[in-house]
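Most newcomers find our protein records easier to grasp once they have seen one. Each record describes a single protein and holds just a pair of labelled lines. A learned vocabulary of local backbone shapes supplies the integers on the structure line. Nothing more is needed to start thinking about how sequence determines fold. The record below serves as our worked example for the rest of this section.
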Amino acid sequence: MSVAKAMSQARHKGKTAFIPYITAGDPDLATTAEALRLLDTLGADVIEVGMPFSDPYADGPVIQASAARALSAGVTTDAVMSMLKEVTPELSCPVVIFSYFNPIARRGTGSFTAAAREAGVRGLIVPDLPYIETGVLRNEAIKNDIELVLLTTPSTKADMMNEITIASEGFVYLVSINGVTGARPDVNPRVKDLLKEIKQVTNKAVAVGFGISTPDHIRQVAQWGADGVIIGSAMVKQLGEADSPREGLKRLEVYARSLKDALS
């Protein structure tokens, strides 16, 4: 199923899409595979899988530490793709890779997107690639039937936001804050107006991410009209900071259920 279709199905059911994020390979790839199965069973509409990278500068300390653990355990892009190729056929929801541009450029945009397609991946998010530089990657993504999800932020100018919204595939990713990922006490109130502005120029689904971590955050963003909520750092913390993979999966299940329940 495409990312756009998954978002559309959630919207037709009158619900806000639940989009959890986990880092590939933290604590290990076998646990990542189990986490994907678990999140799918719990009703995730789309799952983001973070490709570990040594300088994830859009991310806060939780995801930075998670990526560092995965890399120190020897996780590679090839290993992540192999794991996804095994797991994606079992999932009912689409998987989106969240990757900085460096790992994509090292492999080559054509090779990376072809490998992603082969692995059953349906979408791609590249947080550090400016919209004006996405042309080559967008062409390769289209060739390989990969939806390139683009990001807009509170500081994106209106004309650029319009262009990004029109070009984005799967959904429009609204970054709730100017700054790095990580849990925050409250959701930026500007998100309410930004959602309205984006929805004036598109019928595409809009998902809000960065700083979303509690059931109250999720209810607030859903009430403001978001079509999806993305939960990253707080999700990653459940797996990465547990004493064992088994305990991490249990913590992930309890936490994911609490968030999913907030959307019902």
In short: The two ends are 22 Å apart (CA to CA). The chain has one domain: 3-262. Strands lie at 17-23, 47-50, 95-98, 123-125, 147-152, 172-175, 206-209, 228-231.
